[in-house]
Write a structure and sequence with these properties.
The chain has 131 residues and is mainly β. The protein contains one helix and nine strands; from the N terminus they run ββββββαβββ. The chain has a seven-stranded antiparallel β-sheet. The protein starts with 9 loop residues before the first strand and ends with a strand.
């Protein structure tokens, strides 16, 4: 099966494309577990049910571009605290969508012979949809 290159992956926050990214982290939902082991569980093995699901967080890293509308939207989203629609589109056209708020936004460091970076953590709220 052919692999999918990462170059060309895009992300939109509140319908604004975020430029200057060099890393979009993993989208990794997980779930709690409910221990339902009883004294008569078969062969002495623990038993579990799936509990509540948590869609997790998404880490973004890139280079600071002062007037990029997507980066401005992230900063505005952090200030407001409101959840917004997010869509990550991979080069094979697979799209992952969810709602998230900006949990953190960082700028810097500034170093000799270096580019100023930025980072953001999006806290996903609700379900993740893959299309």
């Amino acid at each position: 099966m052919p692999k999918v290159r990462a170059v060309g992956t895009t992300i939109k926050f509140n319908d604004k494309a975020i430029a200057g990214l060099n890393s979009i982290g993993e989208i990794s939902p997980s779930s709690d577990e409910i221990d339902v082991t009883t004294l008569d569980s078969a062969n002495g093995y623990k038993e579990f049910l799936q509990g509540l699901k948590d869609s997790g967080e998404l880490q973004l890293n890139g280079f600071l571009i002062k007037d990029d509308v997507g980066q401005v939207e992230l900063r505005t989203g952090f200030t407001s605290g409101n959840a917004s629609a997010v869509v990550v589109t991979f080069p094979d056209t697979t799209a992952v969508s969810f709602n998230a708020y900006v949990k953190s936004f960082t700028m810097g460091a500034a170093e000799i012979n270096g580019a100023v970076g930025f980072g953001a953590t999006l806290r996903i709220t609700g379900a993740v949809t893959v299309a």
